[in-house]
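Posting this for the archive.
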Amino acid sequence: MTEDTLNDALLEKLRMFATKPNDNVELVRSVAARLHSRAASQDKSVKERTLYGLWKKDSGSLELLLNLLEVMRDHITSCSLAGILHECVSPKLGRRHSPAVKQLVAMNATQVLVRLIQQQQLKETYMVESLLQELLWILAQVAQKDARFSIKVRLLGATKMFHHLLKTHDSSRMVFPLLLVIKALAKNSSTATVLAKDGICSTMDKTILTIGFSPSPRLRLALNVLKTLSKNKLCCGRMVRGSSLVPLLLRIFERWEHYDGRMRLRICSFALATLQHICLTKAGRKVLRKGSGLLLLHKFSGLCPDDKTYDPLLTRVCAILNLCAEKHQLPVANLQGPASFALPPGVEIVTAGQRSSSSRETSPESDEDSSDEGPAEDGKGAEETLKERKGSGGSLLLVSPPSQRDLDDLMQYSRHVAELLPAGDRPDEDSGSDDEDTDEPCRPGFVLSLVDRGSGPSPRARPQRHKLVYDWCGLGILGDIDRHKDPHAAYCMIASRVRSVLPFVKVSYPDMVGGEGCGALEPLHVKDRRVCRVKLLKSMEGSSFDCRVVYDLDELSSEKGTTEELANDDQLRAGQWMPGVEHLLFESRFESGNLRKAMQVNDRDYNLILMPDVNSTHHHQWFYFSVSNMEAGVPYTFNIINCEKQNSQFNYGMKPLLYSVRDAVLGRPGWVRAGTDICYFRNSYQNLANKGLCYYTATFTVEFQHAYDVCYLAYHYPYTYSQLLTQLWRWGLLASPSVVYFRVASLCLTLNGNETPVLTITAPESKTNPIKKRELVFLTARVHPGESNASWVMLGTLRYLLGSDAQDLRSCFVFKVVPMLNIDGVVNGCGNLPQQFVSTRTRLV
């Protein structure tokens, strides 16, 4: 007989006796023994053919064996059947996981095996222990694939049973499968809590001592179980107070060199992960500080091989050292910063959880239906003026005063799609443009009153009104700029009219000249592990907190800004040394600039602190500032010490951007990626606004090519509100009315009084192709001000839509474009969605 035929014959005999196996004990025992010998054969070909036959889903072999094992009362036969299943689920024959495991999970093998193990606990013979061992091995493999394993065990009341088995069989061959079962149970918070209360930590203490510290799979698995258990807070407390597990874990790092290869990495990784979880508790940190644990871990980090596979270990060590190290407060007067904004009267900020049930998006139909219901309770029947925002501080909404809105009220917004209305129904787009006696311009969609900041710090406290002289322009800020004006001068004039929370003293040179990228692909930064390790360990040892402050926006914000038009003198300053100044000169008081404080640690090392979003203590991401008075060819290190994200693209090849005024004068303008020794890691400055967690440091080193140059450093290619307006001014002058229909209107004013441009781009109207029959396409960008890449994408889109290649598109569609939504955030150099977001009460009807 062939191998397959013989196996099929043995399985067929078992099926014959399956209805009444206990009536044919001798025959079933004989067949099961023969099948077991073939499944465990030393002959590889015999074993493979037997197991492949049992693995077949359509054969029903595994279900047959499991059913027989469940009902069989003969111990010897049960051992043979369990042995067959053990061979089926063992990760052998070049497979990491046997295909039989998933089939057994689908057959509810977990419940069957647990009940069988419970039955064996009532017996105390040597033969029972051999069967128990086989059952545990099967269950251990099934547990790793059964997503509901811990729930099933808990419902059967068997959680403590496995702990008892581990406690009583800590020196036998059952330890390994029992540890696998305990690991699966520990993944569930409820069962982990039951195990903790039952004393699992003390049992694991004894188990590790029994296993010993020699490298072995059992030690590796025991440490993995500890790592899983330590995710439970109760287990962490018991590990610190009720056992000596912490000293045992530290002993591993006394002899870590005795381990080798992958085993060393896994053992050290599990031990460090457990220590990191323990250090999240106050008692755990206290235990590590008491002994020589921190010194031992610091020594281990210094001796780690220079191999990228050890980087995760070093990261965990530094995280542990950071958790246990003394925390320092950020050296600023307050976390919110000097930039604050007074909301308009009647506008309040509420969280999404506090939102009244009566607050809703109203429609003409809902307003008419509810007109007789009276005002909402406590006057909270307000319409939302801001969509929900996501952020660490929770969802925020700006709510306007209650008002009844009907069709007549909503019809005022039809002016934004006037091209699609019949000619007789089109509103006068220029109405109110010459009304200079009112502070509230009758711009399309303007709803909220301007904020009167009184004698605020900005000399441009109220928007200036200018007569509109262009038929394509509905923006007051562009209305009177001479068409023959130099683009640089036009930019400065526009920037001078932009309203900011803090006063500006200049315009940025690259923004004024329209600085873009170099136009070529640039290589990613290759991370130097040795440099990053040195910086990590240096930060753990403690930085110098007695730094020299060389730039402080908190103090400078009290100074009055210039009442004259903003300008830029970087070309005159480039190449000039500032006598008597032995440090870099910083500046960020220009549009989209963000740098709050600069501190000189040593001659060429600076700690930098970024501004949070306006009216916030969070979102430190965007940076943009200028530096000058540098020497050429020497490294300067910049450490931004109040980053909040847990990870950054700086760890994956991204470089900061550099713009050199000297290079621009020499004919090489453009932003370039620059910087070496770029790292991103957690520091010891405590973030009191985020549950006391620590900030992160983004550090990079720059060598400037020209002495005493004026250079700009930025997180990403900046694109300012003034750049957008200047570009719109240019397009309006260049667009040919016979080729493209181009209009710029004001959608609304932001809360700080800046106009929000909305563009209309389509083909000129004709009798054969009237505009009102074309479909409408609506595009928006720059919701998050720190994501300036969106503006560059929009710039390319608009260039295409206004170009000759988009003639067919313009003939088919009317493009309504809001190229910059969060204008106040862009102007003030914010990194996320700030609370002074543009009023979005305007809606298209």
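The CA atoms of residues 279 and 794 lie 47 Å apart. The first helix runs from residue 3 to 17.
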